[in-house]
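Re: weekly structure request thread

Next one in the queue (176 aa):
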Amino acid sequence: MLFTAIAVGAGLVVGLLGGGSLNELGRRRLRLWPLLPIGIALQLPLLDGLGSNGLLAAYACLLVFAAANLRLVGMGLVVLGITLNMIPIAIDHGMPVRQQAVVDAGISSTADLPRLDLDRKHHLQRPSDRVTVLTDIIPVSPLHEVLSFGDVVLAVGVADVIFHLLRPRLRHARTE
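Done, posted below.
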């Protein structure tokens, strides 16, 4: 989550430094926008009791919202990132996390891995997990996070969408 928050912040900072304005956000019409806060809320820890099905519902809301707004620059990357994350969550009933990546990210020591308590989204990679290439395998030690390729694609897309939402829309002159 911190990595995504950094992507949001980067999109805002670069957008504002590039001449964008927060006022532009209020002028943009986002299709099916209520799905965005619903998808985010369904991922909150207080809803962990919903299990991986609640998490898939969250991702489904975010995916439908993103797909409905594909006309926005960068939203294609958001759709791709969400899809890449949904695949292992659906197939492996949660996002597998490579154990060595957890250690390399500074989240846990090798000795403490058996006692590591992960959220409903994640579980330590098991031999039965089938889509490990798309799972959390990228350690980011400064953030104490482990990312998937989908997380990276999603973050780039989110930053790009925000950057472009802050920029004034070009008005096309009508030819008559």
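The chain has one domain: 2-166. The longest helix spans residues 51-68.
Next request, please.
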